[in-house]
Design a protein that fits this description.
Number of strands: 27
CATH topology of the largest domain: Alpha-D-Glucose-1,6-Bisphosphate, Chain A, domain 3
Number of helices: 18
CATH superfamily of the largest domain: Alpha-D-Glucose-1,6-Bisphosphate, subunit A, domain 3
CATH architecture of the largest domain: 3-Layer(aba) Sandwich
Bound molecules: alpha-D-glucose-1-phosphate-6-vanadate, cobalt (II) ion
Number of domains: 3
Strand content: 25-35%
Length: 542
């Protein structure tokens, strides 16, 4: 029997770059999760008669959240739920299941790369029937609904056994518990040349994949070790844990330091990779070689045709605005379209649906294609593996070759985490107020030619987004971008994105921090970072 519960609306349920993210204990408050799920249903015109994919990255509270969501959906007349075994699904696998089963969308539980645990982070987001994150119009409707949410409908029912694969009933709703890996692994096998990759591993090619105790472990084991024959032990930290074993499941040089040390050492394997909490991010490394995410997108765009799934070529490339222009150079050389979107995967959805682009990427270790509507960590790793198997060169050789051909976009992101929110806001406000006066002035001898606040109009549906990041552009094409993170749960995080183009053939193998030093200095000067925040050094550099 449906049961109506009266509540006081929550005022802090505004979705950010990727859904609603808060401290786990915030989500554990009575009615908090329920209120947001009710707002999701409200924003999509109700749950009655619909089928949803439900799953998360397995972090603390994932299992209880799945039970709560199932009860709400069943009480409100949903027809079906497809749930990953144990309540677990990687974000790209969830996106695939939504598309494969043509459901009415899905609810994904994750705070991605943020640490997990009772005292860490939790999150929830809704993906549309196309498999992609809800666009801004829908997340705004959710937020509006939360502000007046005075009741929700649930039911009294015992927990479902999430371990048992198969179908069961919850009220009038059919709950189907599915193997979280099988369909996703089949999709990967349909895109890539598994025989060529198997041959390569059989010939002694070595790899390390650090799953960081997060959701990708079982997916990577099945695909790399079982289907491709990589040596047992190729996948490390392969068992998903509710607290990610205390790891910070963010695949970058700072947090994946164990992998980084191994790949930069004397006994490095040929190829290294890591993925994040929910499996949508990737970091790619060769022996002694780090591939920046912006470069990775460019290399993948230039070589995707070597994989069977992309043999016909790619329609176009899209990158988030702060991502380097390395992919633009490839798109230009190939004569294909190139789009620049605001940060967050939701902005790629329309371009992918319309067939305007095939590959998308973000500087934040996100790469993906039109096979799903999320970024996809393991997919990017497999495309690299496919390219390596065909070209039979090392990662370092492929990178150098790429830079020789296209030049190198030196790139780095400096993050200043846990700044007081009002100070961060004041800094950005001051910067915005000065934008009009900056062009034509010099900072540290560097001439500013343009300064603006990035605005985007979606070329497919005309929807507009403002204030997506402050850009400062210099006369040699170098660039600084400032934005505040929309995924944090504590204070504010300032992200400063730095880029400088080096045409080559000389000067292609410098340390990025050294190559970017003048721009970094100018970035501090222009925004007066220290004066506003008290910080003179970033705490994470990628
Ligand atoms: C960050 C990244 C952004 C990414 C988002 C979600 O957002 O910068 O590129 O799309 O995380 O990724 P922000 O607003 O903190 O800069 V994930 O893997 O956290 O879902
Ligand atoms: Co993620």
């Amino acid at each position: 029997m449906p049961k109506l519960i009266k509540i006081t609306p929550f005022e802090d349920q505004k979705p950010g770059t990727s859904g609603l993210r808060k401290k786990t204990r915030v989500f554990m408050q009575p009615h908090y999760l329920e209120a947001f799920v009710q707002a999701i249903f409200h924003a999509i015109g109700g749950a009655a008669g619909k089928t949803f994919v439900i799953g998360g990255d397995g972090r603390f509270y994932n299992d209880r959240a799945v039970q709560i969501i199932l009860r709400l959906a069943a009480a409100q007349g949903a027809r079906g739920a497809i749930v990953g075994q144990g309540g677990i699904l990687s974000t790209p696998a969830a996106s695939h299941l939504i598309r494969l089963n043509e459901t009415d969308g899905g609810i994904i539980l994750s705070a991605s790369h943020n640490p997990g645990g009772e005292d860490e982070d939790f999150g929830i987001k809704f993906n549309m029937p196309n498999g992609g994150p809800a666009p801004e119009a829908v997340t705004e409707a959710m937020f509006a609904a939360t502000k007046t949410m005075t009741q929700y409908t649930t039911m009294d029912a015992p927990d479902i056994d999430l371990r048992a694969i198969g179908s069961t009933q919850l009220g009038g709703m059919t709950v189907q518990i599915v193997d979280p890996v099988a369909d996703y692994a089949n999709l990967m096998e349909s895109l890539f040349d598994f025989p060529a990759m198997r041959t390569r591993f059989a010939a002694g090619f070595t790899m390390r994949f650090d799953a960081m105790c997060a959701v990708t472990g079982p997916y990577a084991r099945e695909i790399l070790e079982n289907r491709l024959g990589a040596a047992p032990g190729t996948v490390t930290h392969g068992t998903p844990l509710p607290d990610f074993g205390g790891m910070h499941p963010d695949p970058n040089p700072t947090w994946a330091h164990e992998l980084m040390t191994e790949m930069m050492g004397d006994a490095a394997p040929d190829f290294g990779a890591a993925s994040d909490g929910d499996g949508d991010r990737n970091m790619v490394l060769g022996a002694g070689a780090y591939v920046s995410p912006s470069d990775s997108l460019a290399v993948l765009a230039a070589n995707a045709h070597l994989a069977p799934g992309y043999a016909k070529g790619i329609a176009g490339v899209a990158r988030s605005m702060p991502t380097s222009a390395a992919a633009d150079r490839v798109a230009h050389a190939m004569g294909i379209a190139c789009y620049e979107t605001p940060t967050g995967w939701k902005f790629f959805g329309n371009l992918l649906d319309a067939g305007r682009v095939t590959l998308c990427g973000e500087e934040s270790f996100g790469t993906g294609s039109d096979h799903v509507r999320e970024k996809d960590g393991l997919w990017a790793v497999l495309l690299w593996l496919n390219i390596l198997a065909v070209r039979k060169q090392s990662v370092a050789e492929i990178l150098l070759d790429h830079w020789h051909r296209y030049g190198r976009n030196y790139y780095s992101r400096h993050d200043f985490e846990a700044i007081e929110t009002d100070k961060a806001d004041a800094m950005i406000a001051t910067l915005r107020a000065r934008l009009a006066a900056l062009p034509g002035t010099k900072v540290d001898g560097l001439m500013i030619v343009a300064a603006d606040d990035f605005a985007y109009t979606d070329p497919v549906d005309g929807s507009a987004s403002q204030k997506q990041g402050v850009r400062i552009i210099f006369d040699d094409g170098s660039r600084i971008v400032y934005r505040l993170s929309g995924t944090g749960t504590e204070g504010a995080t300032l992200r400063v994105y730095l880029e400088r183009y080096q045409p080559g053939p000389d000067g292609l193998q410098r340390d990025p921090q050294e190559a970017l030093a003048p721009i970094i200095h100018a970035a501090h000067q222009i925004a007066q970072i220290h004066a506003h925040t008290g910080r003179s050094q970033p705490n994470v550099i990628t």
